[in-house]
Specification:
Blueprint lengths: L2 E3 L5 H7 L4 H16 L8 E2 L8 E4 L4 E8 L4 E9 H5 L6
Parallel strand pairs: 1-5
Antiparallel strand pairs: 2-3, 3-4, 4-5
Pfam family, one: ParE-like_toxin
Organism: Candidatus Nitrosotalea okcheonensis
InterPro entries: ParE-like_toxin, RelE/ParE_toxin_dom_sf
Length: about 100
C-alpha cells in the first residue's frame, strides 16, 4: 500500500475550486484510493515530459487531470496538481 502525500499539494484549494463539479470530486477520491492500493501506480497514469517530467498524469474527467510523482523507496505518491488541461499545459485538449 502506498502513502498519499497531500502536504505538498494544495488539495483543499483545488477541491474548493471544483466543489460544484461533483464528477471531479467523486472521481478524484476514487482515483486516490486506487493509487494508494495499487501494486504499480505507474501503470495507472501516463508519464509526462517538459514542465511535468517525472510526473504521471491520470484523467479524472475528460478535461481534468491529476498529476502525481512516485517515490518508490519510501512508497509515497505525491499529488502535484489537479486542474483542467488548459490550466496545466497552457493549451486546450480538444485539438
Amino acid at each position: 500500500m502506498w502513502q498519499i502525500d497531500f502536504d505538498s499539494f494544495s488539495i483543499e484549494k483545488k477541491l474548493k475550486k471544483f466543489k460544484s463539479d461533483k464528477m471531479v470530486i467523486t472521481n478524484f477520491k476514487r482515483i486516490v484510493v486506487e493509487l494508494a492500493n495499487s501494486e504499480n501506480p505507474r501503470k495507472m497514469g501516463e508519464l509526462k515530459h517538459g514542465r511535468y517530467r517525472y510526473c504521471y498524469g491520470i484523467h479524472v474527467t475528460k478535461s481534468h487531470t491529476l498529476l502525481y510523482r512516485i517515490f518508490e523507496e519510501k512508497k509515497i505518491i505525491q499529488l502535484v496538481d489537479l486542474d483542467d488541461h488548459k490550466n496545466l499545459y497552457g493549451r486546450d485538449n480538444s485539438a
